[in-house]
Amino acid sequence: MDDFNSETDSDYTSYWRDWFISSRGNEYFCEIDEDYLTDRFNLTGLNTEVQYYQYALDLVTDVFDLDCDDEMRETIEKSARHLYGLVHARYIVTTRGLAKMLDKYKKAEFGKCPRVMCKSHPLLPMGQADNPNLKAVKLYCARCEDIYNPKSSRHSVIDGAYFGTSFHNIIFQVYPALIPTKSSERYVPRIYGFKVHAPATLIRWQSSEKDDMRKRLRKLEIDSGFKDDEEDIEAEDSEEEEEEEVDMDVLENGGIEGGELKV
């Protein structure tokens, strides 16, 4: 009978967390151990970041017994989810948390890289900011070392602070055997089977960027240092003068009547 009561109490204690983890859209989260949640040291500073902190903590740990209306309950529920997310960011960089996230990573529960050359390599959730309400969660591929948006709209609204900016790097420091070989394959553009001349493409891009920069510098009246800059200025001035002459001829010899140009 004592064993039965103990098992029932344990199930009840983890009820809210079980509900949260099993809810649609929360697949990226792992379950935080109860002893981690009840250790106040692990929650240092969160009382100033979460509204109704104590009620939210009681709800997460399933000791909430406040008799309140639905609106208040919903507010506390929202705070509980936010609190869980903030604690989650701290928990997943612990030994136990890393092990749980590693298991999800191996099962590709966070998704697979959409880049063809990565051959469906599993992804890891990551944040671009450690402070909440700044950036949504992204997915990191260790093979191409790039980040991607989640496919599901349910996941794309998760706060990136719930995973932090360091977790996806720490896990490979703790488990170096997981570091994949980098993808050296690159897409090669071709026209009718022939490779597009890469240097020519690069030169065109560089020329375009140089011209844009020189125009910006001229507008700011800054000497660009290019030798042929004066020639370009003279050419542009002559073009402007020609355009002005054409405009003057139109005004003197013709005009616009009834919406038509008369010359």
> Which structural category do the helix and sheet elements fall into?
mainly alpha
Radius of gyration: 31 Å
Question: What's the N-to-C terminus distance?
Answer: 106 Å
**Count of folded domains:** 3
H/E topology pattern: HHHHHHEEEHHEEHHEE
CATH architecture of the largest domain: Orthogonal Bundle
Sheet-strand content, in percent, reads 5-15%
How would a textbook summarize the main sheet?
Answer: 3 strands, antiparallel
Superfamily (CATH H level) name of the largest domain: protein kinase ck2 holoenzyme, chain C, domain 1
How many strand elements? 7
Oligomer state of the chains in this structure: single chain
The residue fraction in helices comes out at: 40-55%
Annotation field: number of helices: 10
Q: What do the pLDDT scores average to?
A: 82
CATH topology description of the largest domain: protein kinase ck2 holoenzyme, chain C, domain 1
The level-1 CATH class of the largest domain: Mainly Alpha
Describe the structure.
The protein is mainly α and 263 residues long. The chain has three domains: 1-91, protein kinase ck2 holoenzyme, chain C, domain 1 (Orthogonal Bundle), CATH 1.10.1820.10; 104-187, N-terminal domain of TfIIb; 190-262, no CATH class. Helices cover 48% and strands 8% of the residues. It is built from ten helices and seven strands. It has a three-stranded antiparallel beta sheet, with no helix packed on it. Strands 4-5 form a two-stranded antiparallel ribbon. Strands 6-7 form a two-stranded antiparallel sheet. The longest helix has 25 residues, at 229-253. The N and C termini lie far apart (106 Å). 20% of the residues are buried.
